[in-house]
Design brief:
Radius of gyration: 26 Å
Strand content: under 5%
Distance between the termini: 26 Å
Number of strands: 0
Number of domains: 1
Largest sheet: none
Shape: rod-shaped
Structural class: mainly alpha
Number of helices: 2
Oligomer: single chain
Length: 115
């Protein structure tokens, strides 16, 4: 009888502790997604600057008649554009993950606050 009573009394505490760890995990995931998104945005800005510089270099090389350097700079330009496209895709995925983690966190908080 005593064991059953102890189980009934402790069950809500155990469930609440599990719920709070889920909330903590969701917050941690949100912070991680924000950090990843900031990194992606920084990479996009860097790649955009590189693209502008490579365009200027290609135009300058073509004006000077230096086709070897123009090809090399055009190859760099293509690589920077590919990098930027990948970073934009990553940022889009991270924004989607961030929204989902925020939703999960709000749902977990609602579950915790329900008596």
């Amino acid at each position: 009888m005593f064991a059953v009573l102890a189980l009934v009394v402790s069950a809500p505490r155990v469930l609440a502790a599990q719920g709070s760890s889920a909330v903590k995990q969701d917050r941690k995931e949100v912070r991680h997604d924000r950090r990843e998104l900031r990194g992606d945005r920084r990479d996009i800005r860097h790649d955009t600057r590189d693209i502008r510089q490579d365009r200027r270099d290609v135009h300058q090389d073509v004006r000077n008649g230096d086709t070897t350097d123009a090809r090399r700079d055009a190859r760099d330009l293509r690589q920077d554009r590919r990098d930027r496209r990948r970073d934009v895709r990553d940022a889009r995925r991270d924004r989607r993950d961030l929204r989902q983690d925020r939703r999960d966190g709000h749902q977990d908080q609602k579950k915790d606050s329900t008596p």
